[in-house]
């Protein structure tokens, strides 16, 4: 059976499973559409939350960013994992105890203001739409490769699949679909990693193999990798980060952005009790750890395999030839990925070989001139393809490649569905039902939710065609926006009675606006829009990049909220009592002065 047929079988079977589950669990009420009827078991919810959380950025893009940058991009791992702990400890149980359907509804009621709810909807939409761009980008990449079509058509096919199970199933359908998607994605991520770890280190556990010996050379694997990439003119894989300030801010931005992401928070509204919210948070950490402990090994081993393939006789020997790429089965993956437009090369000096090296490295320029090289000839290598191409690069069996195809799509589709559900809930429940047409019937609200989700899918496809970065970079921007706008409002709403409606509204707007301005200025989109370019302009504030600014935006939010609250009317007593009831467990005694 050829590889294309295997891919179709694995992907087709997984899609049939997802759509079948959605039909079985079709939402028949707004409670089922928004919160799955609040009847999801903590373990089930933990698995669904893990799938919702581990998006295309985690499955497809994160290992690629680590592979090509090394130690610097470990901040993705630290930020996303630490952020989930923050969410589990500080927000999830309290928001579940409040008993509403959406984050915006909590903010509107806590800050006793329709305006606050409306601003929260705006912040949620900006962050969620930015996030879903990265997911649709991942869908397009995975479909494009494994159906051997252009990424544009892959994006459209993926959008149709999401539409089929998310629009009709709502949170109830999405929950049980995400359980199936978690099983698919974690299996698809782990099996190739085990195979490759055995090949390179003889160790079946990738996380241990990363710190083990490279079997072929007898050197530590990371030392071998450092030697190869430095010979090619790149910095050491394990080299220290460039800017401590930017790395700290970036990690913090990812952490608090995680805790402010509405599509993850919504999952904790689906369990029966507050204690179940805590348990499901714990289970989610277990399920997430299975992938996140493996990702660094996947990135390092993939980089080693690629470098060995491009220089088969060692870094000082001859580069891979064009003839090898065209005829050798070991290099067939390159020709296949070239069809997607995400990988390309050019024999610039006409020597019949493809030189892969850092042509900006001054130390290599003399050597390059001596050998007649005219620059790096691997002209395009989209980092988002690395995990999907990894089994082919390592010459693993065809069924593993088909499994990875299904896993990559499961990761992207699961999070896309959660985000689209958060967007539709914000539009139908918070904007239409909560603001514009409060007397809307439940039937009409359910119809509005489905229509708004369909519209959100169309917007996500249009924006996904021209993303502002690699999938993980685009997602990092979304985290920064959530960190600057939603997280501070939730924290102050739960843990402070000083913040009133005016302070909350001013804080959210200030955090959102200043972060958006910084991102647009840093990306250079105001005067020369070029969303096809993944390079940034020089940072405007020291070494702080656009993906790291969310932490500063959050600080602006906190400061503005406290200053404005101090200048305006005090929070009403009944709201102070509401805060105390959310924060203090039953039977613990009355709160004193709301504290």
UniProtKB/TrEMBL annotation:
A GO CC annotation given for this chain: plasma membrane
Domain of life: Bacteria
This protein's record includes keyword Cell membrane: yes
PANTHER family listed in its UniProt record: NA(+):SOLUTE SYMPORTER (SSF FAMILY), SODIUM/PROLINE SYMPORTER-RELATED
Parts of the chain that traverse the membrane: 6-25, 77-95, 116-134, 146-167, 179-200, 247-269, 281-302, 399-427, 447-465, 471-492, 504-528, 548-567
Species classification: Bacteria, Pseudomonadati, Pseudomonadota, Alphaproteobacteria, Rhodobacterales
Main localisation: membrane
Subcellular compartments: Membrane
Protein name as annotated: Sodium:solute symporter
């Amino acid at each position: 059976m050829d590889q294309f047929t295997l891919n179709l079988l694995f992907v087709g079977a997984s899609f049939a499973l997802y759509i079948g589950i959605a039909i079985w669990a079709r939402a028949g009420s707004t409670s089922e559409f928004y919160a799955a009827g609040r009847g999801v078991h903590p373990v089930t919810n933990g698995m669904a939350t893990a799938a919702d959380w581990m998006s295309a950025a985690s499955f497809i893009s994160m290992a690629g960013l680590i592979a090509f940058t090394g130690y610097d991009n470990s901040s993705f791992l630290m930020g996303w994992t630490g952020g989930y702990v923050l969410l589990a400890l500080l927000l999830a149980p309290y928001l579940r105890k409040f008993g509403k359907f959406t984050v915006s509804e909590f903010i509107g009621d806590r800050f006793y203001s329709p305006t606050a709810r409306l601003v929260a909807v705006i912040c949620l939409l900006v962050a969620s739409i930015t996030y879903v761009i990265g997911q649709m980008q991942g869908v397009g990449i995975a479909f494009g490769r494994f159906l051997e079509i252009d990424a544009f058509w892959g994006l459209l096919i993926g959008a149709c699949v999401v539409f089929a199970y998310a629009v009709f199933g709502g949170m109830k359908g999405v929950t049980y679909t995400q359980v199936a998607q978690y099983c698919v994605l974690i299996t698809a991520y782990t099996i190739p990693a085990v195979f490759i770890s055995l090949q390179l280190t003889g160790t079946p556990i990738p996380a241990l193999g990363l710190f083990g010996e490279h079997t072929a050379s007898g050197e530590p694997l990371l030392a071998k990798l450092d030697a190869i990439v430095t010979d090619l003119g790149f910095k050491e894989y394990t080299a220290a980060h460039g800017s401590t300030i930017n790395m700290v801010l970036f990690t913090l931005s990812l952490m608090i952005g995680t805790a402010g992401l509405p599509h993850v928070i919504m999952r904790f509204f689906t369990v029966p009790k507050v204690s179940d919210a805590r348990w499901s948070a714990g289970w989610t950490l277990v399920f997430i750890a299975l992938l996140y402990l493996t990702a660094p090994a996947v990135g390092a081993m993939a980089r080693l395999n690629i470098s060995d393939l491009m220089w088969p006789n060692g870094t000082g020997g001859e580069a891979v030839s064009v003839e090898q790429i065209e005829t050798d089965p070991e290099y067939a993956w390159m020709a296949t990925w070239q069809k997607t437009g995400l990988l390309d090369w050019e024999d610039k000096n006409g020597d019949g070989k493809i030189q892969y090296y850092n042509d900006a490295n001054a130390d290599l320029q003399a050597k390059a001139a001596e050998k007649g090289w005219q620059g790096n000839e691997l002209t395009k290598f989209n980092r988002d393809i690395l995990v999907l191409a990894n089994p082919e690069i390592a010459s693993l069996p065809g069924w593993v490649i088909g499994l990875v195809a299904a896993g990559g799509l499961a990761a992207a589709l699961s999070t896309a569905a959660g985000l689209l559900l958060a967007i539709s809930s914000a539009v139908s429940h918070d904007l239409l039902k909560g603001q514009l047409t409060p007397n809307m019937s439940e039937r009409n609200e359910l119809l509005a939710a489905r229509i708004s989700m369909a519209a959100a899918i169309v917007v996500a496809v249009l924006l996904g065609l021209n993303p502002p970065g690699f999938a993980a970079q685009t997602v990092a921007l979304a985290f920064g926006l959530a960190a600057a706008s939603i997280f501070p409002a939730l924290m102050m709403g739960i843990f402070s009675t000083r913040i009133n409606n005016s302070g909350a509204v001013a804080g959210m707007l200030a955090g959102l606006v200043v972060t958006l301005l910084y991102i647009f200025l840093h990306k250079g989109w105001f005067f020369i829009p070029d969303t096809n370019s993944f390079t940034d302009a020089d940072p405007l504030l020291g070494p702080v990049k656009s993906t790291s600014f969310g932490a500063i935006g959050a600080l602006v939010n906190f400061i503005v909220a406290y200053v404005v609250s101090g200048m305006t009317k005090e929070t009403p007593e009944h709201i102070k009592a509401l805060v105390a009831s959310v924060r203090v467990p039953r039977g613990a005694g009355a709160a004193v002065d709301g504290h």
